Amino acid sequence: MKAIKSLLCATAIVSASAANATDLEVMHWWTSGGEAAAVNEFAKAFDATGHKWVDAAIAGGEAARAVMVSRLTGGDPMGAFQFNHGRQAEELIEAGLLRDITDIAEAEGWKDLVNPSTLLDACTVDGRIYCAPVNIHSWQWLWVSHEAFQDAGLDVPTNWAEFAAAAPALEAAGKLPLAMGQQGWQQSGAFNVMMASLVPSEIFMSVYGDKDTDVAAGAEVASVFQAAAAARDMAAKSTVQNWNDATNLVITGQAGGQIMGDWAQGEFAVAGQTAGTDYSCLPGLGTNPRLGTGGDAFYFPVLKDDAQIAAQSELAALLLKPATQVAFNLKKGSLPVRGDIDMSSANDCMQKGLSLLASGALLPDSNMLITPDTTNQLNDLFTQFFADPSISAADAQAKFVDIIADAE
Amino acid sequence: MASSGRPPQLFRNMTAKIAAIPMILTALVVFVGGTIWTITYSFTKSGLLPKLKWYGLKQYDRLWNTDKWMVSIENLAIYGLCMLVLVFVIGFILAALIDQKVRFENTFRSVILYPYAMSFVVTGLVWQWILNPEFGLQKIVRGMGWESFTFDPLYNADIAIYGVLIAGLWQGSGLVMVLMLAGLRGIDQEVWKAARVDGIPTWKTYLLIVIPMMRPVFITTLVLVATGIVKLYDLIVAQTGGGPGIATEVPAKYVYDAMFQANNLGQGFAASTMMLVTVAIVVIPWAILEFGGSKKHG
Prior knowledge:
The complex is a heterodimer.
Chain A: H1 2-20, E1 23-28, H2 33-47, E2 52-57, H3 61-73, E3 80-84, H4 90-94, H5 102-108, H6 110-113, H7 118-121, E4 124-125, E5 128-129, E6 131-133, E7 141-145, H8 146-151, H9 160-172, E8 176-179, H10 184-197, H11 201-209, H12 213-216, H13 219-234, H14 243-251, E9 255-259, H15 265-270, E10 279-283, E11 291-292, E12 296-299, H16 306-319, H17 322-332, H18 348-359, E13 362-363, H19 366-369, H20 372-387, H21 393-406
Parallel strand pairs in A: 1-2, 1-3, 8-9, 11-13
Antiparallel strand pairs in A: 3-12, 4-5, 6-12, 7-9, 7-10
Helix pairs in contact in A: 2-17, 10-13, 10-20, 13-21, 20-21
Chain B: H1 14-41, H2 58-64, H3 67-98, H4 105-113, H5 120-130, H6 137-143, H7 160-185, H8 189-197, H9 202-213, H10 215-230, H11 234-239, H12 251-261, H13 265-297
Helix pairs in contact in B: 1-13, 2-13, 3-7, 3-10, 5-7, 7-10, 8-9, 12-13
C-alpha cells in the first residue's frame, strides 16, 4: 500500500512538472519524407520559443483523423492537431471541443494577411476563428511527361483538348495515355478537376456551393462526364493503386500524363527532373488556369492548463509568421497562406501557382463546400465509374445528381 | 419450505457466481448495452459525434439505395457460402488424409496450420502479390512457356471476390483441419474396427458414422468460421482495398468507411444493425432448434 501511495505521488509530481515545462503534443499525418522535413520546420521554430514540440505523427489521414477525434471526444485532448480545414471539423466546433482563437487572429492581423481570404473563412464558424491555416494545396494540375510525347513523335500538349487528342497516338506508341491510381479519392479528385477546368467556374460553384441539382443535371456537367468517360478510356490500362506510383509512370515516360494535385511536384523533384524540360505542369489542365485553395490547418482543442493554453497561443501565432511560412512551404511544396513574403526560391511550377494566387484566379476546395459524407459518396461513385466502362456518362450523371440533391 | 436445510437456489455455488459477475456485467453492459445503444442511434442523424437528432428510417432508406451496400451484401453471401462449404471440405479431407497414420505427420500438420499463424493483413498482401499478373503466378506460368495463360482475378471485377476467397481458404483451412483432426482422434478405434468387420467401405464409414459422431466439433468449427466470415474486413483492406471499383466491398468495411471516412455515424450504425439482423436471422432459428430441442430430452 505504501509503495502504491508513493508511486501515485511520484506520478503526480511528474505530471505536474511536465505541465510546467509546457510540452505541447502536436498531432498530424505528415509522415512522408518531404512532409516530415516540412513539419520539422514548425517544430524547430516552436522549440526556439522555449516550449517543447512533442511530435505525434500518425500515418494516413483517415487513420489519423479517427484517432484525433476519439481522443477529443474521449476527453484526452492533445495540444494541437492538423486537419484539412473546411467542413471536417464543423461538428467538433459545434460540440465546443475546439478553442476559439479569434483573439490571436486579431492580434496578429490575419484578416489582412491571409491570402486568399477564403482560407480564413474556412476556419470561421459564426464569426469566430477556430483554426490557423498553414498552406495551400491545389488539385487542378495536369502533369505531362515530355519523354512519352517525344517517343510517340508528338508535340507536348499545352491543354486538355490537345492532350486528349494525342491519346490514340500515344497508345499506338505503346504508352499509357493517362496514369490514374485506382483509388476513389484520386478518381473523384480528377473528376472535380475537370469540372473546375473544362467548364466555366460558375458551374463548379453552383454544383458544390449551392447544390443546384438543375445545374448538376445540365448540359455543361454532362460534357464533363463525357470528358471523364474519355479519360476513363485513356486510363483503362492503368492498374497502379497509389498516386505516387501513377506519378512514377509519368516520370519514367511510360505514361503521357496524370491529373494530380501539386503534391505530385515533390516526386518529380526527388527524381531530379526539371519543370519545362522533363515535364510540364498545366494548372487548370491548361484550359482554364485556376487553382483550388484546399490545404492544411491547425486546430487547438480546449484545454484547462494555463501554461498549455499559453503555449497553444504562441504556436498559433508562430505558424503564420513569415519565416516559418517560407521554411515550411518550400519543404512541403505547397503555397504559403500569406501573399507578402518572398518565395523567389520556389521552382517553376510553384511560381505558376504563386502568380495565379496573386491574380486571384481561385476556387474554393471541394472540402470546404461539401461534407466528408458527400465526399465519400462521390468517391464511391467515381471508383465505380472509372473501374467499370459499362457505366455510361449519363447513368453516372444521374447518380451524381442524386448525391448532390442529398448533400448539405 | 422443504426442511432439507439446502440454501436457496440463488445462493448455491456462491463462489462460482461471484467469479462470473465481471463477465456477466461485461456481457450485459458492453454487448447488450452497446447493441441497444447502436440500434437507437441508427435512427438518428449522427455525424462525427453521436447526437440524439431523430432521423426516422432515412439512414436505412439510404443504405438500401446505395450500390456499395448492395455489392457488399452480395459479396458477403458469395464469400460466406463458398468459404463455409470449401473450408469444411478441404479441412476435413486434409484431416482425414493426415489421420491415415502417415509418416512426418507433425511436419504436415505444422505446414498446413502455418498460414493460420499469419494475420489477415499479411495473408492479403501475400496473395495480392501472388495474384498480380505483372510478377505473380501468371508471370511464372507464362515464363514456363504457356504464353496465353491468364490468371488475374483481382483485376477482373466479376471474379475479384474469388481472388479474396482463395486467400481466405489458404488461411483458414489449416485451423479447420486441426479441429477436425482432433475430432477424428476422438473417435474410438472400436468404431472403426466394428465398421471394418461389417465390411463397410471407408468413405461410407466417414460419411455415415464418423461425421455424425463429430457433431460437436463441427458446431465449434462452424461458429469459428462463421464469425470470421461476418467480420471479414482486414483481408479486403490489405488485398484489394475494396477494388477494382467497388467489386470486393464487404459490410464491415462499409460500416468503417461510413463512420470514420464519411463522418456519418448514423449510416454506419444503420449498416451494423443490418449486419446484426442478418446474423440473428441465421442464428436464432438454429439456436431454437439446437437448444429448444435439447430441453425436451433433458
